[in-house]
Design goal:
Blueprint lengths: L5 H10 L2 H29 L9 H9 L4 H25 L18 H25 L6 H12 L3 H26 L13 H31 L7 H9 L5 H25 L3
Helix pairs in contact: 1-4, 2-3, 2-4, 2-10, 3-5, 4-5, 7-8, 8-9, 8-10, 9-10
Organism: Mycolicibacterium litorale
InterPro entries: DUF1206
Keywords: Membrane, Transmembrane, Transmembrane helix
Length: about 280
């Protein structure tokens, strides 16, 4: 590969820093904790003993209610910053930028679609970090409320409705990709090891479950834009609650809870085995 100068060269230098790599890996730990909390909320919904928001805002609200919740929320925000910056670096340099010296780096790492996925993840991590700060400061609006508010604003114009539909289709596509990535076991390409039986099971179940729920959330956004009904655009929480309306709804919600828990534990493994 050719030497890079300017901004790209500075980003490359940053990704070569061992401390930066360790800090980014810490973000996976936090992501795992949040997924386990979401799984806990979903499970409580499944057994009818809870009505919390089954999404990142619900997980943050659960943290806020614990002893030392204020510090925990700030810890989430701070820990997600390096991972956000790492995803931005991947947007600029391609996936797994710390491996740029390796002779057999996968050409797929440089594809535009993979750079865009890295950018999308950076946006998600940044949004969760910002939400954690807001929760720590006492502003505790749920993700569903924010999604509905954004939908109401966009639906004020035909262009906004079209943009909302595009967003919904994008989320649906991302969810389908996650499910496919899990079912095809392509997530193993992101690991420094081949993956044993337990890690493979966690990766498959976690990616498929999260992908299907995410795809459901995207479909709800598309429906909201078509029907001009912003109340339908309630994100992950709405997708989980919609499962409860289906036949064997409690069973489906329970499976979703298990899947999110699996992804949480898979995220813990990423703190050590993720390709950076």
């Amino acid at each position: 590969m050719t030497d890079e100068t300017g901004a790209a060269g500075a980003v490359r230098t940053a990704t070569d820093n061992r401390a930066a790599q360790i800090a980014a890996r810490t973000g996976y730990l936090i992501n795992g904790v949040l997924h386990l909390l979401i799984a806990y909320i979903i499970f409580r919904v499944a057994i009818g003993s809870g009505h919390g928001d089954a999404d990142q805002s619900g997980a943050l609200a659960t943290l806020a209610e614990t002893k030392g919740g204020f510090l925990a929320l700030w810890g989430v925000a701070v820990a997600l910053v390096p991972l956000t910056l790492w995803r931005l670096a991947e947007t600029v340099l391609g996936l797994h930028p710390s491996e740029h010296h390796e002779a057999h780096r996968d050409p797929d790492d440089f594809l535009v679609v993979n750079r865009l996925k890295a950018l999308g993840l950076a946006v998600v991590y940044a949004a969760v970090a910002a939400m954690a700060v807001q929760f720590a400061l006492g502003s505790r609006h749920s993700s569903a409320e924010r999604s509905v508010g954004l939908s109401i604003w966009l639906m004020r114009s035909p262009e906004g409705k079209a943009l909302l539909a595009v967003i919904g289709l994008g989320v649906t596509a991302l969810g389908c990709y996650y499910a496919f990535k899990g079912a095809s076991r392509r997530f193993r390409d992101d690991l420094t090891i081949s993956g044993g039986r337990l890690l493979t099971v966690l990766g498959v179940c976690g990616h498929v479950a999260e992908g299907l729920v995410l795809a459901g959330a995207g479909v709800l956004v598309v429906v909201a834009s078509i029907r001009a009904d912003p109340s339908k655009a309630t994100g992950l929480d709405g997708a989980v609650k919609a499962l409860g309306q289906a036949p064997f709804g409690s069973v489906l919600i329970g499976i979703a809870a298990a899947g999110f828990a699996a992804y949480g534990m898979y995220s813990f493994a990423l703190t050590r085995y993720a390709r950076m």
